Amino acid sequence: MIKTLAIALTLAAAPLAGAAQQPAPSQAPARPAPAAQPQTPPAAAAAVPGQQPAPALPRVTLEQALQLGRQYNPSQVQAQQNLRVANMGVTEAWGAYLPSVSASAGSSKSSSQRYNSATGQVVTAPGDQSSFGLNANLNLFTGFQRGANQRAANATRDLNQAALLQQDYATDLNTKQAFFNALSTQELVGVAQANLARSDQQLKLTSEKLRLGATTRADSLQASVDYGNAEVQLIQARANALTAQANLARAIGAVGMVAAVPDTALEVRLTSLDTAALRRDAEASAPSVVQAQAGVTAAQASLAANRAVYYPTLSLGASQRWAGQILFPWNPIAAGPKYTGTWNVSLSLNYPIFNGFVREANIVNADASYQTSQAKLRDARLGLDASLTLELTALDAAAAQIDVSRTSVAAAQEALRMQRERYRLGASTIVDLLTAETTLNQAEVSLVQARYNYLIARAQLEALVGHGL
């Protein structure tokens, strides 16, 4: 920018004399570096002119980015842990059919002389006591609660599996968007560098014509302004690329910035897409519908489990206990039998009559959740149909925009070539030339954006239907 301002000041101070008396600019603007290839990510320090380039950034392919995204995305990790907890819930529901077993043990030591309150005398009794035992309990009948709880646990597991599937495609979509944004901003740096090179050519052309007296000082000043704007565009493009690389690093759980590796195979268009078959498949495989359906099943199972509380329960219990007048079972000086064993078997029936409307409140809550889940399922199916229409239209529009943008670039290149030649011959003005240059720059930017808009639209459609296209 300092060099550009120096050129502008030199041109402004030039006297309005003949061509022989026109001083040439003190120094021609240096030609910028060639446009960067998409495979070379912009360095962090390249946004500041004159600064040494930073070390090369780590690079990832789309496949690597998707794998890392599923590994480190917080929502993905939470969905995986929810499924883990749900699987344990299934194991717990199955364990309700097994008996519960517990063990107990204890030892105590007290003074041998004690006061007997019944006789009013001091008596002598053993001061060492210890006991241990086993207890077991088996529910014979729980009013169908165990079966209902097991079905509810299975439904909850299926619901968390559906939620994980939904999160899989949501995470993939987020990673793809970050990856494609990083690629597009890298290419836009190249577009900005090419635009700066063209502005440099225009500035040199107007400077030479000004030296020969074939143009005016206003044209040279206008070309200098255009060159400065091109420099600003390049700096902004590099800043956008750095931001996109930082966002990509965050999406895959990396520290710092990460560059995306271009792959031409990603831009292969869908030749034919059977929309009717796609809609039929989406009704069965769409993550949103699968999750909503699992929610209905889980709510229905929970309602059945709450209704089972009205039935009686029958349980069988057994215990075995050993007790003796010694402190430790390994006492070597204890004489005679160390422990006396006792056992007990019990059968109990429990029928809940009234518990303060707790059962009724739980049933109402479970039924409300069931009705809500059914409404969500209907809305998910309707939303899927509307979203499919939107995404299919967006995909077609993005594909058409690519063709239009490519034609626009070709037309703008030819227009710029003609305007440059006409300006060199004095048949057009600097405004016409700079307008053609701006049109080409905008067409190149639009082409880059259209190509990656198509990839993002395809990724959104894949996330919606639940499988690749």
The side-by-side strand order for the widest beta sheet comes to 2-5-7-8
Query: What's the CATH C level of the domain at 2-9 and 41-49 and 56-94 and 158-309 and 357-465?
Result: Mainly Alpha
Q: Percent of residues in helical segments?
A: 55-70%
Question: How many helices does DSSP assign?
Answer: 9
Secondary structure: number of strands: 8
Radius of gyration: 40 Å
Give a short account of the largest sheet: 4 strands, antiparallel
Which descriptor suits the 3D outline? elongated
User: Would you identify the regions where 5 or more consecutive residues have pLDDT less than 50?
Assistant: 1-51
What is the topology?
Elements: H1 2-12, E1 59-60, H2 62-72, H3 74-95, E2 100-109, E3 113-116, E4 121-124, E5 128-141, H4 145-212, H5 217-251, E6 259-260, H6 275-285, H7 287-307, E7 313-324, E8 340-350, H8 358-424, H9 430-465
Parallel strand pairs: 1-6
Antiparallel strand pairs: 2-5, 3-4, 5-7, 7-8
Helix pairs in contact: 1-5, 2-4, 3-4, 4-5, 4-7, 4-9, 6-8, 7-8, 8-9
Q: How would you concisely characterize the structure shown here?
A:
By secondary structure, this protein is an alpha+beta fold. It has nine helices and eight strands. It has a domain at 2-9 and 41-49 and 56-94 and 158-309 and 357-465: Outer membrane efflux proteins (OEP) (Up-down Bundle), CATH 1.20.1600.
